[in-house]
Write a structure and sequence with these properties.
Distance between the termini: 36 Å
Mean pLDDT: 83
Largest sheet: 8 strands, mixed
Shape: globular
Oligomer: single chain
Low-confidence stretches: 324-372, 374-379
Strand content: 5-15%
Order of helices and strands: HHEEHEHEHEHEHHHEHEH
Structural class: alpha/beta
Amino acid sequence: MRRGPAVVAFLALLFAASAWLQSKTLFSPARKALESHHLATLADPRGHGLRIRSHGCMDGLTPCLLVEPAEDAAPGRRGMLLRQQLASADLALPPYGSARGIVVLLHGRNGRKEDLLPVAERFVAAGFRCAIPDLPAHGDSGIARSGFGAAPGEAELPGRVLDDLRKQFELPREPAALWGMSMGGAFAVRAASAEPRRWSSLVVVSSFDVLGEVVDRQLRRTLGPLAPLFRRLLDRIDRARGTVDIAEAQPRAWATQVRIPTLVVHGTRDPLIPAERGRVLFDALASKDKRWLEVDGGTHDRVLVTEMPLYAEMARWLVETMGHRAAAPSQTAPALAGQAADPAPEAPAQAATPAAEPPAITADLPAQAEESPGAAPPP
């Protein structure tokens, strides 16, 4: 008879300890170490057609990479394919080595800046520099906790990174865009809403409308009817720890202040952040120049790795919206078409575009390890 209360007390203690741990890991996940493919690119950037320089932005708290085309070098394999795809769509590109804008790339939760080097390689080939910071509580960041864009100073972080890199490396004043994936997408939407005059364009990949909805969904899947109780306990612990309240991370609310051209990309088979959450975010955007793009069969970790030429779609969007637009694209702009390249195993049969549109060419498909820039923010 006496074991009953003891068991209940033990389970309650275990429940509370689990909530404490989840609170910590949600906003301060284990930091990802540099991986072999990161080191390979950093050791031989010229082999990828790149010049990579590093700088400690924000007084050293935010380590950053500046990725540019290498002088007197040809684009690497990924960049060459992207240029071929864009040329097939009759999109004029400057000679390789030229840059006509800068894109700030923001990684996902559990990621780090080096994850986005393959993304930067493509955008550099399209004529852009790329700035890649370690977001708070990730990589080598000196900031202990992430607020998913809601913490003090996070709205200004991408802009401060841009200012620091421009000053450090004497970069020209040129159009600037934001690109963010998952958690990085929340940071990007927050920055675009807070400093609208700074940014010319926005691309959001596999992100969410309300962090609480993502957390609650994961809790329901693991805890069932105990999920609401766990969430209330989690919120109390967050307040006690002085972290951002989960309910404060609301990209849907920030989106109502975003009026710059915005492309929102989401996979149809994302198990962590369903496409409907991305669609709610898209619908909330105040921009009159926005496009929703579904990636057929795309999951959260592999949305960039399907038959769809997604990099070409994103690069075209940036080129057209950063001061080089011939005509404003519609919300259902046609997909690129052309010759296939490097077919993917177990890839969907067609791109995520309406059936009446031309088929998409096959995208470049490197290993998953270098194409998964961070995971969603589940508890």
